[in-house]
């Protein structure tokens, strides 16, 4: 029952330091997650407490195998947890049925997977249109919005390509377009720039920030890429299954 009040001092906030109270978009309390059973069981998350505020872009860093992807999957409701509470955009994921959770995720979240998870038989534009089609958007409109989003990630000339005919970085950009197309309230990104060169990584982070971060939205980005730290408002470090520190990111003065 520690830190149940979501105390701001232990969270090292806020990004802009303007003193205004920001509403909590994601509240994680006492999250525990193990894989396997018996002697081979591994506890990956050992009691995570974390707040993410509306209007911010939170970076999540930490050693490989430390549990970052596991935490993102739990927050997105893709993974069942063993203990703790997860409150996302004002709803308790912990108490939702799997079906309700899936619909809730489709309506409110975008997820950029570490493995791109594109559907191999669909073109780039069709892949990007999938979240809209699931929401009931008509095919013609979904595809046209898909193509527009692909233009924004610099792939306007690749909309009808299948994933296997795209480079790794291009596939990553299709996955990013798919996560952004329905303008999610919570955007969850697992190493979104890992397959991209410097300029494309910067461009994509600008897009993620512009689309994802608004007063009524927030973004969580797992990354090892120090070149994109400047896009974050705060950085949380996950080590050995625990959040060991959260601090605001000092922004360089921009012209
Ligand atoms: N489905 C699973 N079954 C068993 N173990 C798993 C499963 N998923 C993850 N793990 C284990 O949980 C640990 C954390 O994995 P996770 O993918 O969350 O790490 P990560 O911090 O994202 O690492 P990386 O930076 O390399 O992506 C790893 O030791 C991994 O082997
Ligand atoms: Mg990972």
TrEMBL record:
Domain of life where this protein originates: Bacteria
EC number in record: 3.6.3.-
Name of protein: ABC-type transport system, ATP-binding component
Organism: Nitrospira defluvii
Record-level Gene Ontology MF annotations: ATP binding; ATP hydrolysis activity; transmembrane transporter activity
Gene designation per UniProt: ybbA
Keywords: ATP-binding, Hydrolase, Nucleotide-binding, Transport
Domain ABC transporter: 26-253
Lineage, broadest ranks: Bacteria, Pseudomonadati, Nitrospirota, Nitrospiria, Nitrospirales
Root EC class: hydrolase
